Amino acid sequence: MIKKILNFRFSLCFLFFVFILSSTTFSQIIDFNPKTITAGTGSVLTFTGIGFGSSRGPNAYVAFSRQDPTNLTVIKVLESDYILWTDTKIQVKVPAGAGTGGPIIIIDRHAAFT
Fold first, then answer.
1. What's the rounded Cα separation, in Å, for the pair 108 and 25?
2. Which residues, 6+ apart, have CB-to-CB distance to 18 below 8 Å?
3. Residue 114: its pLDDT value, please?
4. CA atoms of 64 and 87, how far apart (whole Å)
5. Which of the four, 29, 36, 52, 113, has the lowest number of CB atoms within 10 Å?
6. How far apart are CA 24 and CA 101, in angstroms?
């Protein structure tokens, strides 16, 4: 009897976990272009991928590492520098001070890295 109850509880937990994973959308960067770009000059960086969302939500942004390696914070793209945001493509102007590290896309606290 105890074994059946434990198996049933395990099955319910497993089904709940599968439901959570299937209802959660994760973004993925497939590519970005150009591969070399100058920060702060109005140059546009294009990301292609999946799961970005049909429009940019309040908890979604693109960020870059800073040029100064001793400053571990990131630089977020300014509101005015988002050119395009679709489920499969994002275009942004690279902000001044952006460093050589890979850009990050954050959507509802989930990160997609280049």
1. 10
2. none
3. 60
4. 20
5. 36
6. 28
Mean pLDDT for each consecutive 10-residue tract of the chain (114 residues)? 42 36 65 91 94 90 85 88 96 91 77 65
For 27-113, CATH number out of 3.40.50.2300, 2.60.120.260, 3.40.630.10, 2.60.40.10 equals 2.60.40.10
Whose CA is closest to 106, among 75, 72, 81? Answer: 75
Q: Are 91 and 42 within 8 A, CB to CB? A: no
Can you read off the two tokens belonging to residue 62? Answer: 């693109």
Q: Which H or E element spans position 104?
A: strand 104-107
Best CA proximity match to 64, nearest among 104, 91, 35, 34: 104
- With residue 37 as reference, give the H or E element that holds it: none
Q: What's this model's pTM, rounded to 2 decimal places?
A: 0.72
**Cis preceding linkage at 58, omega within 30:** no
Q: What residue type is assigned to position 42 of the chain?
A: G
Classified as helix, coil or strand, 47 is strand
